[in-house]
Structures are given as structure tokens and as C-alpha cells.
Design a protein that fits this description.
The protein has 389 residues and is α/β, with parallel strands linked by helices. It folds into two domains: 140 residues, Aspartate Aminotransferase, domain 1, CATH 3.90.1150.10; 221 residues, Aspartate Aminotransferase, domain 2, CATH 3.40.640. 42% of the residues lie in helices and 15% in strands. It has 14 helices and 13 strands. The strands form three sheets. It has a seven-stranded mixed sheet with strand order 2-8-7-6-5-3-4, sandwiched between helices. Strands 9-10-13-12 form a four-stranded antiparallel sheet. The chain has a two-stranded parallel ribbon with strand order 1-11. The longest helix is centred in the C-terminal third of the chain and has 23 residues. The chain is globular, with a radius of gyration of 21 Å.
Length: 389
């Protein structure tokens, strides 16, 4: 059988792998599985938004045919308007492409930047789908270590830049660590990228759940931002549209000419119903989204308090949908994660899923995605972790 060696060499999806750990298993009614493995809302969109989707499906014939490759002009324009206001900069409709989820936005960005053999710098721990796509594309992942606060440094990044480097990727708030990158650090990375004629890919999938008031950075205030910056965004988390696959890529119009080629080849156009839902959500669900953010921040606070009360456990980072923790056991994090299923009825992902193979620090770390468990279940999670021997 002939297979693409780059695809064969790519690790399986950690989420898919973790689901195999619970396949065929049943859990007591009085001790149900707590699934903290995947960072995605499982509840449906609010009823008003579902009604918008239903009406579009029934009443809009154009919602069922191919649309513009780069997305509905109305949605592109709304993203440009709201993001310009939020960041205090100038973003136009011509800077915005709508994609089939934020993962596709990342893939499209890399396709415009890299040929096989090129390099991209990823901070560790990294978002595994980013690293998987680089492997598939034949692009070398250059790991960038992070310190005790799980923040990369410009000096460490600059030391890893070579003639083949094409981009640096930052995710903030971070997946898997939850850490919110300080504005001055993001600004410094943009300056580094510009100095070396690289792209800074800034994945802000979780921007709606950032705990800080105001804009998280000032990059869009630079009139020449599009020379360096490629921003990624997801509507999935904000409006519970994960199954509709709607994301966005914000970049220079000249780059979007190339993005359009990629998107036309792999999807032709973004999901039409999902785009209409995202547009309506942006225009009508501001207060509802503020409530969602407040609830996520409350869960974050509950996680922070709970972890600090567990003997031997260490809270390394928390924010958005995630807590990243150090465990106290003399075993690899993957082995511990499998044991958690059987002994604590908890499905979580080990740090080894977010780092290069053999990473010693990752072996001591676990990611907890708390968006799908309420504060009562968070208390239950802490009790179960405390009971482990």
C-alpha cells in the first residue's frame, strides 16, 4: 500500500486517541465520567440562534448553494467592523476570509507561507493540530520552550530562526495552557517577526474569554500590521457553532489572494448556514456572550482554588477553557491519564500530547478543559483527583 510518509509520520489526533480509552467502558450512574479532554462547548447554540439557522434553512435558497470562496461579504464586513473597534485599528473587509473553522484558517495560512522543508516556530506546550498540520505539509516544527509561567521569550525564539524559518505561531489565550500572553510580549514578537521578515500567526480562538478588559494587544494599531500579522479566530466557541465549522483569517489582501486558492480547492466555500448564524450572533448576542464569558471565568476561578488545595498538584496556567497542571505521581502523564479513566472516571489529556516526544516536563503535566463541566462538577473533579493514590 502506497501512503504519504508525511501523513504516516504524523501522530494520531490526541482527542481521537483519548476517546479510545473509554470505548466500550461503562460508568456507574452515581459516578459518571467527567470528560475534560476536549475544549469545545457541547450545548447547542441559544434558541434564538437556532431559530435563525432554521429560518435560513427553510426560507433562503442561497443558503444551500455554493457561496463566495472567502465568505459572505456581510460577515466579512462585520468581522472587520467589530475587530477594528475592539483593537483600535483599521481592518477592512478585504482583510478578512471566512474559513471552515479556525483549524482550516491555520492550514490556509501555512499553505501561503511554507513549502516542504521550511520551518515554523511553535511554543511548547503547543496546540497539537498545529503541529500535526506542519508534519503533514512537510514543514519542520521548531519547538520553542516556555518558562515557569509558560510564556515564550523573544530571545529564545530569535535563537531558533534560520534561513528556512517562515513564521512564529502564538496562541492567546493559550491552548493548552490557558495563559494570556501580555500585550508587550505579543508586541515584541511582532517586532521580532518583522525584523526577520517572518509572519506572526496569532491564533485568538479564545479571545472572547480573555479575562482582561479592553484589547489584548495593540498590533492592529500599526498601519502596516498586515506586513507581518496573520490573525486567526473561531466562531465555534463564542456561539456554540462547533458543528457548523466557521472561523476567520485576517491578513493582507495580497495574502488572501493565495488563501482563496487554498480554500477553493479544499472546501469551495464556508458553511452557508453557519455563516448566517455567526453574522446574527455577532450582531445580536453581545449580552449573551458576556454571560458566557462570566461563567467561564467563574469556572476558571473554581479550578484555580480547587487545584491549589490538592496536595502535590501544581497549577501551571489557567484561562479561557483550560487549566494546565503538574501532577504529583511517579508515573508518566499518559499512564496517569489512562489510570484516571478507571480509578477516577475522569478523561483528561496528558502533557505529552502537547509536546515533542520524550519531553520530560510534559510527562509531569495534565490539561484539564473545564468548559463542559459546571462548578458543581468541578468540585466533584477535585474530590476525585484528591482520592487518587
Amino acid at each position: 500500500m502506497k501512503l504519504n510518509p508525511n501523513l504516516v509520520a504524523t501522530s494520531a489526533s490526541p482527542v481521537v486517541e483519548a476517546k479510545r480509552w473509554i470505548a466500550g467502558k461503562s460508568f456507574p450512574a452515581d459516578r459518571p465520567l467527567l470528560n475534560v479532554s476536549q475544549a469545545a462547548p457541547i450545548d447547542p447554540p441559544p434558541e434564538a440562534l437556532r431559530e435563525v439557522i432554521a429560518r435560513a434553512a427553510m426560507d433562503e435558497p442561497m443558503a444551500h448553494v455554493y457561496g463566495p470562496v472567502l465568505g459572505l461579504p456581510e460577515l466579512r464586513g462585520e468581522v472587520a467592523r467589530q475587530f477594528s473597534k475592539a483593537y483600535g485599528g483599521t481592518i477592512t473587509q478585504d482583510n478578512v476570509a471566512i474559513t471552515q473553522g479556525c483549524n482550516q484558517a491555520f492550514c490556509a495560512a501555512i499553505a501561503t507561507l511554507c513549502a516542504p522543508g521550511d520551518e515554523v516556530i511553535l511554543p511548547v506546550p503547543w496546540y497539537f493540530n498545529h503541529q500535526m498540520w506542519l508534519d503533514m505539509a512537510g514543514v519542520k516544527t521548531v519547538p520553542l520552550p516556555t518558562g515557569a509561567e509558560l510564556l515564550p521569550t523573544v530571545a529564545e525564539a530569535e535563537a531558533r530562526i534560520t534561513a528556512r524559518t517562515r513564521a512564529i505561531v502564538l496562541v492567546t489565550p493559550n491552548n493548552p495552557c490557558g495563559v494570556e500572553y501580555p500585550a508587550d510580549l505579543v508586541h515584541a514578537f511582532a517586532a521580532l517577526a518583522r525584523a526577520h521578515d517572518l509572519a506572526l500567526i496569532l491564533d485568538e480562538t479564545y479571545r472572547d474569554f480573555d479575562s482582561r478588559p479592553g484589547a489584548p494587544h495593540d498590533l492592529f494599531q500599526d498601519p502596516d500590521w498586515s506586513d507581518t500579522l496573520i490573525q486567526l479566530y473561531s466562531f465555534s466557541k463564542a456561539y456554540r457553532l462547533t458543528g457548523h465549522r466557521i472561523g476567520a483569517l485576517i491578513a493582507a489582501p495580497a495574502r488572501l489572494v493565495q488563501v482563496e486558492k487554498f480554500l477553493d480547492t479544499v472546501a469551495i466555500c464556508p458553511n452557508q448556514l453557519g455563516q448566517r448564524a455567526a453574522l446574527w450572533g455577532m450582531q445580536n448576542l453581545h449580552d449573551w456572550l458576556a454571560g458566557e464569558r462570566a461563567e467561564i471565568l467563574a469556572r476558571r476561578a473554581a479550578i484555580e482554588v480547587g487545584i491549589t488545595r490538592l496536595p502535590g498538584w501544581t497549577l501551571l496556567g489557567a484561562g479561557a477553557y483550560f487549566a494546565y497542571v503538574g501532577h504529583p505521581f511517579d508515573e508518566d502523564a499518559t499512564a496517569l491519564a489512562k489510570r484516571l479513566v478507571d480509578e477516577a472516571q475522569v478523561l483528561a489529556l496528558p502533557g505529552s500530547f502537547f509536546a515533542p516526544k520524550g519531553d520530560a516536563q510534559a510527562a509531569r503535566q495534565i490539561r484539564i478543559a473545564f468548559a463542559n463541566i459546571d462548578r458543581g462538577q468541578i468540585a466533584m473533579l477535585m474530590d476525585r483527583l484528591a482520592s487518587l493514590a
